[in-house]
Design goal:
- It is a single chain.
- By secondary structure, this protein is of the alpha+beta class.
- Helices cover 26% and strands 40% of the residues.
- The protein contains seven helices and 16 strands.
- It has helices at residues 2-16, 19-30, 32-45, 205-211, 237-256, 281-291, 302-310; strands at residues 46-52, 56-58, 62-71, 77-88, 93-103, 108-116, 121-133, 140-154, 172-174, 186-193, 215-221, 225-231, 261-267, 272-278, 316-323, 326-333.
- Strand 7 (121-133) and strand 8 (140-154) form a beta hairpin.
- Helix 1 (2-16) runs antiparallel to helix 2.
- Residues 174-188 and 220-224 have low confidence and may be disordered.
Length: 335
């Protein structure tokens, strides 16, 4: 288009022998050079960042991702292409879109994208490159840009669990005593003097140092049983989505009923069972946020074999797994 316009100016100059068209023709010949140099200058001064409205969102709810394009140059660009990639790392699914934004002089241009996701997982938004088009449209310069932001997409909170859970009480097992932080299902009732036979982990060291005598925390058990729930990370993406929704909704109902839960899943990357103690909904959200860093595995049967060989002390647990295209929960009793 620019060349065609130059030929038209040259024709008028040749036909009319006008100094005006000669000057215009010289300007058109010289203009691309400063145009390209200014485009390089703007490219050097551009940066793009991403911000999410919240670190976690529920499936089917509206959330926002804001694209911020900052131009520190004293020259604008009418067309900056931002290559935005959306990746669900849990399902290994990826898609890309190209956004076109202007870059005003020493300004930050913001574009807020409303997003409603229909699948759970760890969603990463990233911009790995931006491209700047010069004003005359001759060239496009690409620039690397490293900007990433993550959002956990949890199952819908009010999901109705259409399952008969009356038999699930067989999944209750005796809570193991542990000294891991956050896993102590007891509360401090009183502080008393040490009696031979008391556990060292119950000693109140600060108070003992002040009184110059050993003092122990007298604990009252809040619960001696807990529900063990194993979630299978197997099956097709559609089946796994059903498993995630069923497990999340079931455990949410259990927490509402004041049941303590030991939530477990098999980690292919670590080759071990991961487990979390759940006592409230925040624990539940944190646990699923960790789950979404895992990868699917193809064989759903091997998890029970691993449980029998690695965790034989668990006499019973609830297994949530895909079967015939849908999610089911079963009570597994180990000999």
């Amino acid at each position: 288009m620019y060349i065609a316009l130059g030929l038209v100016v040259f024709f008028f100059h040749d036909f009319l022998h006008s100094h005006f068209y000669l000057m215009l023709l010289l300007i058109m010949v010289i203009l691309p050079l400063p145009d390209i140099l200014l485009c390089l200058y703007v490219r050097h001064s551009l940066s793009c960042s991403l911000v999410t409205s919240e670190p976690r969102a529920e499936k089917y709810t509206l959330s926002y991702v804001t694209v911020k394009l900052r131009n520190k140059a004293f020259f604008p660009s009418l067309s900056v292409r931002v290559n935005l990639t959306v990746e669900n790392k849990f399902y290994n699914e990826k898609s890309s879109i190209v956004l076109t934004l202007p870059a005003r002089i020493r300004k930050t241009e913001e574009l807020q994208l409303p997003i409603k996701l229909s699948r759970c997982g760890l969603v990463e938004y990233s911009v790995d490159s931006i491209s700047v088009l010069d004003i005359l449209g001759f060239v496009e310069f690409k620039k690397k840009n490293d900007s990433k932001v993550e959002m956990s997409v949890l199952p819908y909170g009010n999901t109705y669990i259409n399952r008969d859970l009356t038999d699930m009480n067989r999944g209750l097992t005796e809570a193991e005593e542990t000294n891991k932080r956050g896993n102590d299902f007891s509360d401090v009732n009183d502080v008393r003097e040490y009696i031979p036979g008391d556990k060292l982990m119950s000693i109140h060291w600060k108070l003992s140092a002040k009184r110059d005598i050993l003092m122990v925390k007298d604990r009252v058990s809040m619960s001696d049983q807990q529900m063990v729930v194993l979630m299978e990370l197997s099956g097709t993406p559609e089946e796994l989505e059903e498993v995630v929704a069923l497990t999340y909704g079931m455990m949410r109902n259990m927490i509402t009923s004041n049941l303590f839960i030991r939530f477990m899943w098999w980690s292919e990357s670590r080759y071990m069972f991961e487990e979390r103690q759940l006592m409230n909904r925040d624990n539940l959200s944190d646990a699923f946020n960790d789950v979404f860093y895992e990868k699917r595995y193809p064989d759903p049967e091997k998890t029970r074999e691993y449980m029998r060989s690695i965790r034989p002390e668990l006499k019973a647990y609830i297994d949530v797994l895909p079967r015939n295209g849908e999610a089911v929960c079963e009570v597994v009793e180990q000999d």
